[in-house]
Amino acid sequence: MKRAWVYIVQCSDGSYYTGCSTDLRQRLEQHNDGTFPGYTAKRRPVVLKWYGETNDINSAIAAKRQIKGWSRAKKEALIRGDWGALHELSLSR
Q1: What distance in Å separates the CA atoms of residue 60 and residue 85, rounded to the nearest whole number?
Q2: Nearest residue to 73 via CA among 89, 87, 49, 91
Q3: What is the pTM of this model?
């Protein structure tokens, strides 16, 4: 199995983008040089705010889909590592 990462970057407009990749360093370079099309292409530069390692790309895709559905407050709690707030925000939905 090839490990993979799920990550959150903050774009130049302050918004967050959640993605996944088997090569995190290369993907961040692609986001910042504009060769990764889509949401971040016109919101550069991006700054890595959080990442988590998974055992394979399918796990990373599942985690990405879950995090994408979260509120901004919940994503920020994850970024801060504030597990108490993350738990509370999970209960309030």
Answers
A1: 23
A2: 89
A3: 0.94
